[in-house]
Amino acid sequence: MASADQLKALLKSHIASDDTHFFSVAMQIAAHEAKLGHGKLAEEMRALIDAAKSRRTAESITKKPTPIAQPRGELSNLLEVTYPSARLNDMVLDDAVETSLKRIILEQRNFSKIRGHGLSPRRKLLLVGPPGTGKTMTASVLAGELNIPLFLVRLDALITKFMGETAAKLRQVFEAISDVRGIYFFDEFDAIGSQRGLTNDVGEIRRVLNSFLQMIEQDSSNSVVIAATNHPELLDYAVFRRFDDVIEYGLPQREQIIALLKARLVNFKLRAPRWNTLAATAEGLSYSDVARATEEAIKNAIIHDQHCVSPTDLEKTLEERKVMRSRMTLTK
Prior knowledge:
Elements: H1 4-15, H2 19-35, H3 39-62, H4 75-78, E1 79-82, H5 95-109, H6 111-115, E2 124-128, H7 135-146, E3 150-153, H8 155-158, H9 165-179, E4 183-186, H10 190-193, H11 203-218, E5 224-229, H12 237-241, E6 245-248, H13 254-264, H14 275-282, H15 287-303, H16 311-331
Parallel strand pairs: 2-5, 2-6, 3-4, 4-5
Antiparallel strand pairs: 1-3
Helix pairs in contact: 1-2, 2-3, 5-7, 9-11, 13-14, 13-15, 15-16
């Protein structure tokens, strides 16, 4: 039977969340029970302690936020860190993308278990699709779901005109990827991942791409590396082979548009909603466009002291976004 001092030590260590001391005292009690001839009890206690230790180790990798200050030195110019709280339920996605993201989250949460069998969870992702379809939001959601920091790789600071300097900076980024677990997000990845045979290609960019391909292939860290592009047709063919998953994002269909409108209007009702009509009006817009149009209609209602959003006003803001989108397309 555990002594009074041991019981008090167990309680104190539990209250203080001192797992190391808690497990140490528990093992002492198990050893004491073994000396008393209670072999079965001692064996059961040791098994429980070992299982708890393994679970704590897995949680330290997959759930606990990484304690990290802002990147220092030159890394402070290359990486911008945030700690998102977004969740998968905050996004409206088609079934294929949602299934892919759920699988990635599940594998990451079982990181240690998968690694224990000599396998690697999905952790190198390429996101492709038009602007405003959720690629950037996905990086925030994965960071929020896994409770780890999100590092945005600043390509404007990474890419320079001096020979060899960009590759050296890129190596610093991959050293950070190895040192600190997080989501590392390369947005507008076609800036460094373009096909090496393009007529406007320059030698330095070819060298940078070659360096990236080598580094991501050699990377066996615990971090998640995400690259996103609006122009997958520009990417070098070798890029696709380096990623575990290529996830394709598209414009929302009618059911996704309606779901997004309802989600955005959850705290501000729509008067006499005509969901199908609104969805038809919004057809061809991105998720971001629909969200912004809804926000504009809500702001208009607030300005005019209205308690509900007018369907006519919402149709108008959706049409305005379509006009703006068509103008942007023509100028490209």
